[in-house]
Amino acid sequence: MDGRQGGGREPRTPMRADARRSVDALVEGARAVFARDGVDAHVKAIALQAGVGVATLYRHFPRRSDLILAVLESDVDACVEAAHELAAAHPPMDALDLWLDRYCAFVLTKHGLAAALHSDAETFAGLGEQLLERLEPALDALLQATRAAGMTTDAASAMDLLRAVAHLCTPGPAHAAYTRRMIGLLLAGLRYGPLPRPRRTSP
Question: Count of CB atoms within 10 A of residue 30's CB?
């Protein structure tokens, strides 16, 4: 979100340092409050969590949707940065596996904001695809590293994998083991590639 103010997507004049700190605190505060109380939480709770006044919140984020968008964009930025950090710290396959865990956590957060995403069509129009497009290069770099090391095939693109994992991520602790197992099966498929389909025999 560098160089952006509140929920705006277009670059704007860089903020003063104190304004930047307020925005960062509000995004972090909103993330914590949304996770605890849901996206309909009172703005006073968000301002209190961030350590700023309600007037400061409204100055930077006039609409609730602006704040939700800022949280989502911040989470995407963190996922992209995590891809670089994991690639530098782990072998290619481990980095890919760990990043998919991080991405799944992001998707589950997005599930929690699903109602809000559909409540303001103008603000969130096409947002899901835009988020995937920002994540795609990060995942593609991890995939390319595993292919260069001979660890995976080119059976699936980064976008294929982003969509597949998103469909597998089911909210709730009871589903965590299942989600992890299904992602493991996806990675196994990348290692070995698709099996040839059996030939049909004539009746």
Answer: 26
